Every structure is written in structure tokens, then in C-alpha cells.
Amino acid sequence: GTPNVRTALLAHTGEAGFKIVNTFNKSVTRVSSHDWMRASHFCWVPPGQRYGDARRHIVSVFTGCIPVITIPDNHNTLEELLPWERFAVLVPPEQLPRLPQLLRSISPQRREEM
Length: 114
What we know:
Exostosin; 114 residues; 9% strand; Exostosin GT47 domain-containing protein; globular
């Protein structure tokens, strides 16, 4: 079956070069998500309901962070109008265990194009 997306993502906590904060853990010191997004190449966008929450996608783009989108059926918000594959990384849930390798394989030139 499809893995739980948040659980699969949290499995990468402690991975070199990754900043993952479990906001459900109340003992964790709060961080400014916008500051971290501005300082990051990639930002995971939680799926939200149905095809994702467009507010999450847009905030990532506006901060200059490439959205990493994990939606089980690969349908994205406004997909009829927006070519997501040009400026986002689409990762099927079953590929989340390989997320660090997938993101590291994207060249600086490709990141700049996105």
C-alpha cells in the first residue's frame, strides 16, 4: 500500500543536509518556516486534501524554494494550467525512502532552471 507520507518523510530526520521539523512534537523548538524556506533549495509541500493545498505550493515558490510534491495519484492543483514538472519535484509516495538521493541528483543548473 501507499506509505504514510509524513512518517516516510520523518524517517529522514538527521540526514545530512536536511532540515526536518516535526511540528506535531510539542517539545521541539519552533522555527520560522519562511526563514528556512528562503534558505533552502527544496521544500516539501504537504499534500493536504485531494490534490494538495495550493497555499502551501505557492508559499514555497514565492520564497524561492523548489516545491517537493508528494501526491499519491500525481494530480496537482491547477495542473491544467501549471506545468508543475518544470518548477517542482514530483515524488511518488513509494519513492520517499529515496528522497535524499533523488534531491541530491538534481544538478545546480537544473535547480536554477526550476
